[in-house]
């Protein structure tokens, strides 16, 4: 008998494999709740938004969609993007509309080796990789400002402008978030990713704010690295990193590199947080809709289940989050691996194994 909290979640499976991995994540979460001794239960509301919805309604989400989501405890998201719709329309119409509409300004993307998962970067099974990429999630290169065909130039001479907006408030809050996170970790190190040698306004502001905020955290080690050098450092000196804070675009690119180093993009979990908790936060695997494998039952559900763990942590159930993470580890350690990790387990088999491992 449930006498604990009923957690109200808005599920938005979205496009392609998003639908498969959100279904998998929901099964795992329901099994977790059933076994929680009444500590919590989930009440799910599913929203059919995405590219199919666009085909019928000419928009990616319902009119007033944000208002429909506002009172949920959290949003559990799959993926967005489908070949029939230009990617910038689907992304801005759904995922970014939610992230920016709810001011989910901090995106965290942990990067970790899992037991039993090999990768070209993993020289021995005991090699450690344990970072968190902190992505500024509200402005920067994703400010959505600019225009095309300015001045009405003739065909062949078109000009487009895409502005990156960096505000002192936006930079400071993400820096402080990264430093606060680093303080909870063993290494207590923050690396700021920049490109201030070439981008002399926004990225210099980014550096100035980083250096100023760092003074308030004398117990945290810091360094700063150009984004191009950082890509090389990910590969050549992974042990030198702990918390990596970067702009919207830089962090998006680097976190994909990091998850590939850990074995596959399919493993990567993420949380889009409104740390002030004024609005619901959104939890989603980092991967996209993967049209090439959608509907085949072979998508990797681990990124979605890992995102569910981040959601439980955020909602104040750290022991439940730990159980989810341990169940993922038990599954990969036992060699139940989907295709992107070199195995042949289906989405359903990996999901069942994770549910079985909740008991371990
Ligand atoms: N689950 C993540 C997702 O659907 N991503 C789609 C995508 O294209 N994202 C690009 C971005 O957010 O920068």
Automatic annotation (TrEMBL):
<dbReference type="Pfam" id="PF00180">
    <property type="entry name" value="Iso_dh"/>
</dbReference>
<comment type="similarity">
    <text>Belongs to the isocitrate and isopropylmalate dehydrogenases family.</text>
</comment>
<dbReference type="InterPro" id="IPR011829">
    <property type="entry name" value="TTC_DH"/>
</dbReference>
<dbReference type="InterPro" id="IPR050501">
    <property type="entry name" value="ICDH/IPMDH"/>
</dbReference>
<dbReference type="InterPro" id="IPR024084">
    <property type="entry name" value="IsoPropMal-DH-like_dom"/>
</dbReference>
<keyword id="KW-0479">Metal-binding</keyword>
<protein>
    <recommendedName>
        <fullName>D-malate dehydrogenase (decarboxylating)</fullName>
        <ecNumber>1.1.1.83</ecNumber>
    </recommendedName>
</protein>
<keyword id="KW-0464">Manganese</keyword>
<keyword id="KW-0560">Oxidoreductase</keyword>
<dbReference type="InterPro" id="IPR019818">
    <property type="entry name" value="IsoCit/isopropylmalate_DH_CS"/>
</dbReference>
<feature type="domain" description="Isopropylmalate dehydrogenase-like">
    <location>
        <begin position="8"/>
        <end position="354"/>
    </location>
</feature>
<keyword id="KW-0520">NAD</keyword>
